[in-house]
Amino acid sequence: MKTSSRKKKVAKRVLKLPDLDFAKRAVLNTLGSPESKRAYEFAIDDFVAWYCSEPRLAFSKTVVLRYRLDLEGRRLSPATINLRLAAVRRLAYEAADTGLLSPELAAGIARVKGAKRIGVRLGNWLTAEQSQTLLRAPDAESLKGRRDRAILGVMLACGLRRSEVADLTVQHFQQREEHWVIADLIGKAAHIRTVPVPGWVKATIDGWMAAAGITAGPLFRCISRWGTIWGEGITEKVIWHVVKESRPRPGLPNCRLTIVAARARGCAAPQAASWNRSSSCWDTFR
Hints:
CATH topology of the largest domain: hpI Integrase, Chain A
Shape: elongated
CATH superfamily of the largest domain: Intergrase catalytic core
Helix content: 40-55%
Number of domains: 2
Number of strands: 5
Strand order of the largest sheet: 1-2-3
């Protein structure tokens, strides 16, 4: 009886740089959100740089525990440490799934616990007075000022991320039950939601559209130094500069956390609030 000369492929215990790079591409290909891809790529690159600087040991639970101790030594927040460890677990899973790593080692890495999160972070958001100062900062007489006020209004009153504001189009604004909403907004992790729009925000947007002559397509456009519209749409970096130029205090405020915190506090008077079935804080920053 003939014996097969074909040897059984044995999974590796020590991964070299080409193996790690292959597993990294496999991880990124499974992610749909650009933000998640950017975060996981940064986390995996950080781990690979640390792993290659250490004595070449097996990619195992012990090595990942040492990496966690290194992250804690850098005094990173628990949320950041847990994100880095999640990326490493995903890296081990994909390496085992493609036959680059032993399944036993991958299972051990998956059992590495993250950092404990004790207490609740205070956060960083604006008060109602600071939000009003932020909204009034752009010059309402100039075309750029009208655009900036509309951007800040959408961010503060609707709680949109910069990427979501940059992707807004005229077609996103629709009427539902006699109220204006941003319909079918695709956000982080490809989640689709509908966001109510206060009346004063819609009025600010209408003023910007009338001044810029925009009737379709991307809602916000770039403005040249001569005060004319050019290009199709804006980037997240442009929105970052809009907030930076209008900030009422040193340090960039988190406009999304501002509206979330305002909803939690219930800070607006009911008679001053616009339509919202779950909160009365839409007009707090008017």
